[in-house]
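Quarterly update from the structural biology core.
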Amino acid sequence: MEFKFNISNSWDIAFHHGHSAFRLLALVYEVENEYIAKKESLNELEYGHAEYLMVLSSLGALTTNMIRVSTASIMMFQAMMEALINDSLERENILSSINKSGTFNDKWTKALKVLDQDESSFTKYKKNIYTKYRNPLVHPKNLGSGDFDDLSFSRLYKGFYSGWDAYNKLYDGLKHPHSENSWEIMCEKYALPNKL
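Predicted structure, tokenized:
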């Protein structure tokens, strides 16, 4: 069998990465819900017995799955954010003053400024996803024990929402607006809650 991926530009890449990130976020949601249910079930089991130990063991496996799907989701969402800004810098004359070789942060903040768009959503994304998780995953220097212990579906969801809102603002400024409920459309497509 031969696949025809029909990927011809950076927008196609951004589209692919965005959908991959949401699909992976849906897996994060499933894993976290399963973990919570199993952890709560320990209260009904007798400590040290076989069933208790089996559930305890499965919590370890779910923890491993949680970090795997969470980090994959982070990387796909970040790849989408990078492809979006790079595609915009290539295609849009209004952004021609921005250095295409600049940092991720510089490209996004300068583009939003040029387009007279609020930067607060991008700032939240940068703090809560890019700096908190993406950077240590890509450049794993000086990691401390527990650096990812606050990783959760809720934290990723809120961080991705901020990134998605920055994406909306970028495209609003470029006069290519999304539908007002684009976040909800993606959440519905991947069986995620519309709001937290």
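DSSP finds six helices and no strands in the chain.
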